[in-house]
């Protein structure tokens, strides 16, 4: 017997991608009795520094066939919300992009266009729009908005290559952290199951019809998700 909650139980199989974490979160919001059983799906809130942002743009420029960077995948999976002060946009437009464009002999307009799309994924905060003087000597004051925002929103840290982040009292996170979050998002989506009553099943049950996950065709999978999304919109 397949356990049910509200007449619908979805057991997510290995054909899910990391982006499916968003659907899983929404599903659990609708079917709240399952939340204590499934457990919490972690989120890692971070702040983005200009040196990591420009590196991501450069990667996108050099690898146009890659649909998304590791950071973008983590954002879309909902595993890693990325925040930034308005100062980041100014620093990118006035400094980071022009410098990299000149150094790499790339048209600045190309990187600016990439930035326009990229920054739409960021959660912007207008609390720290300009750098503030620091009592600590020998540090780059341009990093203060990132550290101040990270502390303000209780983020895990700042994605940055700049060691001044730590000198200013912040926590610096490098790309290996992003890769770890991406691995978590993929693994959680890949292996995620909904456990009800201590029983883990390997099936999908919608409207009382149970189908073995291993026997699902692509057409059936698409229909299942279409029905799930429709049901969630109607709730």
Question: Can I get a quick summary?
Answer:
Helix content is 48%, strand content 12%.
Could you walk me through the main structural features you see in this protein, from its secondary elements to its overall organization?
The longest helix is centred in the middle third of the chain and has 19 residues, at 86-104. This protein is globular. The protein is built from ten helices and ten strands. The protein has two domains: 8-39 and 188-234, no CATH class; 46-183, 5'-nuclease (Rossmann fold). The chain has 235 residues and is of the alpha/beta class. The relative contact order is 0.20. Residues 1-15 and 193-235 have low confidence and may be disordered. Strands 4-3-2-5-6 form a five-stranded parallel β-sheet.
Secondary-structure map:
Layout: E1 8-9, H1 20-30, H2 35-38, E2 46-48, H3 50-62, H4 70-76, E3 82-85, H5 86-104, H6 108-118, E4 123-125, H7 144-152, E5 157-159, H8 164-167, E6 172-173, H9 175-191, E7 195-196, E8 199-200, E9 203-206, E10 209-212, H10 218-234
Parallel strand pairs: 2-3, 2-5, 3-4, 5-6
Antiparallel strand pairs: 1-9, 7-8, 9-10
């Amino acid at each position: 017997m397949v356990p049910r909650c509200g007449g619908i139980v979805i057991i997510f199989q290995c054909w899910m991608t990391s982006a499916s974490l968003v659907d899983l979160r929404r599903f659990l919001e609708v079917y709240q009795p399952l939340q204590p059983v499934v457990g919490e799906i972690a989120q890692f809130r971070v702040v983005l520094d200009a040196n990591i942002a420009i590196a991501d743009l450069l990667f996108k420029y050099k690898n146009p066939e890659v649909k998304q960077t590791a950071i973008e995948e983590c954002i879309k999976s909902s595993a890693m919300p990325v925040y930034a002060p308005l100062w980041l946009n100014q620093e990118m437009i006035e400094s980071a992009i022009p410098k990299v464009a000149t150094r790499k002999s790339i048209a600045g307009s190309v990187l600016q266009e990439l930035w326009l799309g990229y920054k739409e994924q960021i959660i912007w905060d207008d609390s720290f729009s300009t750098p503030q003087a620091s009592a600590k000597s020998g540090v780059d004051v341009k990093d203060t908005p990132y550290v101040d925002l990270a502390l303000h929103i209780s983020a895990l840290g700042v994605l940055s290559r700049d060691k001044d982040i730590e000198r200013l009292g912040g926590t610096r996170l490098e790309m290996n952290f992003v890769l770890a979050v991406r691995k978590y998002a993929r693994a959680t989506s890949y292996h995620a199951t909904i456990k009800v009553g201590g029983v883990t099943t390997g099936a999908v049950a919608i409207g009382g019809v149970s189908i073995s996950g291993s026997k699902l065709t692509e057409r059936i999978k698409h229909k299942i998700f279409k029905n799930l999304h429709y049901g969630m919109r109607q709730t």
